[in-house]
Amino acid sequence: MSGFVRTEIKQFMDCFLPVPVTGQLTGDCWGAEHVLPRDQDNGLEDKVLEDPAITGKVNYTYWDGTILYDKDGCGKYHMFASRWDEADGFEKVNGTGGWSGSLAVEAVSDHLYGPYDQKERLLWPDSLGGLGHNVYVFRLREDDPAGAYAAIASDTRPGDLFTTDNLDEGKWTYRGPLKLDRGHFFRANICIILRPDGVYELLNRDGLIALCEGSILDTFHLRHENIWPEIKGLPTENMEDPVLWYSGGLYHCVVNQWSARTAFYIISENGVDGWKLADGIAYSPLRDFIRYEDSDVVNRWNKIERPGVYLEEGVVKAMTFSVLDLPKEEDKGNDGHASKVIVVPFDGEALNRFAREQYYGKQNQKV
Fold this sequence. Notes:
- By secondary structure, the protein is mainly beta.
- Helices cover 5% and strands 32% of the residues.
- The chain contains two helices and 20 strands.
- A hairpin with an 8-residue loop joins strand 12 and strand 13.
- The longest helix has 13 residues, at 348-360.
- InterPro entries: Glyco_hydro_beta-prop_sf.
């Protein structure tokens, strides 16, 4: 019997739906008590964590998790993530490794919610050994000579771009760092979307917005240095992991304040300025929202970061998150704790209605 009761949409978080069980709910797996039982077939994870010094098998911990559906190719869901050796812990001390040594990978599934099979598919093994963190993959404009899809890796790389013509073949070409007309900018947590007007829009951790009307390989032009202080009621410090998308006639963004462990939801009509903070919050690990269908089970991950959106026909159907079962500094490796990517269903139609009410007011909505 499920404890989930759908209520009126009063905030972004109310649009999350119960997670369908793809495999089974089990408590016989790694993780702290508050993430058990869970469905290990949801998203991307190494199910068994064993000491490689004993087994000779390397276990991985995963981060990021953008999903694209290859409708014109193999008809599968492609997840793009980063991974590193679980034995390193979240951040290896006194040496390279941990998240700072993560590699960009691809995992494939027949189903949106998983399981995703990683199969040692490094995205660009010939470029710095596959180095890539905060990996974000997006579709390109149909007439872009650079290719059909692009990936950007930031934080451990200077906003490096890669492109490919085919998701299934997985041959990614290194295109160099992304270019901005003012030169230097903070190349962290970069998100890029293809707008409905055919323009590429970039948003980074600092709230910088830039646009590019040509190829993804052309120069982006700065439009805003930092939008966070311009939005009434939105915190301005310790913001991270913004994700941007367009749906229902509006531009949407979720951004996390890591120090408060709370994410916020903002809306704009043109995606550049006029941003408004919506009521409530987007999500928080301090609030219960990751629950399963036909069950009272709730998973309470300590860290819920790197939000991603999966859209079908222009409407959000699911969100992805990088999750960790304990604080980052406590994940030491070979300790029965790790991170993974989860996929959570989402009512995008309800969100679009809520967004219009929040932006225009209930009595003055645009259709």
